[in-house]
Specification:
The chain is an all-beta fold. It has strands at about 25-30, 35-40, 50-55, 65-75, 80-85, 90, 105-110, 115-125, 135-140, 150, 165-175. The chain has no helices and eleven strands. Strands 1, 2, 4, 8, 10 and 11 form a six-stranded antiparallel β-sheet that branches. It is about 0% helix and about 45% strand.
């Protein structure tokens, strides 16, 4: 067995208090249970934001743990790009690759009208503010001419078809 002995511990800001580091300060959440649809082709840089949630951090050094998920469907073969924004800034998106790829937090592809896909992500954000922040969950689709659906498949009308939910959970973590 090992023993760790120290005279003083300091937090990142130079203070002696490290007792709250890692503790959950507050939790807020929202869930979308109804459905939505659109035939609009949304550019990856301008997703359709369908769910928002506000949080006001207690300290500018605290982090926000984001868990978000969406249930999506399509009337035909298309790619969905999924994006989380803090106000107007994307929180976690892929790199530019060879410049032909769309940048997003995550994505999926749906080929059949009866299919639904669940897309989820977890990110640790450092907003560096004590002002209210709005986190937004958005989708964009990769193929024009198709209708996309939130929380249902294109084929919707019978016990064999599933309706789901989409949501955001935010946790402020003391740093």
């Amino acid at each position: 067995m090992s023993t760790l002995k120290v005279n003083t511990l300091q937090n990142a800001s130079g203070g002696n208090s490290i007792g709250n580091v890692g503790k959950i300060i507050q939790v807020v959440s929202t869930v979308k249970k109804d459905t939505a649809s659109s035939t609009v082709l949304n550019d990856a840089a301008d997703p359709y934001f369908f769910l928002t949630l506000n949080i006001t951090p207690a300290s500018a050094s605290n982090k926000i743990l984001i868990y978000a998920y969406a249930t999506v469907g399509s009337s035909g073969g298309t790619t969905f790009r999924y994006q989380i924004n803090r106000d107007s800034t994307p929180v976690d998106i892929g790199d530019t690759g060879d410049a032909s790829e769309s940048r997003a937090t995550s994505g999926t592809n749906i080929q059949e009208t009866w299919e639904i896909a669940n897309i989820a992500t977890m990110n640790l954000d450092s907003p560096s503010t004590t002002s209210q922040i709005t986190y937004k969950l958005g989708l964009s689709n990769g193929t024009s001419g198709y209708t996309w659906y939130i929380n249902r498949s294109s084929t919707d009308g019978g016990s064999q078809y599933v309706r789901g939910t989409s949501g955001i959970l935010l946790m402020e973590v003391a740093a």
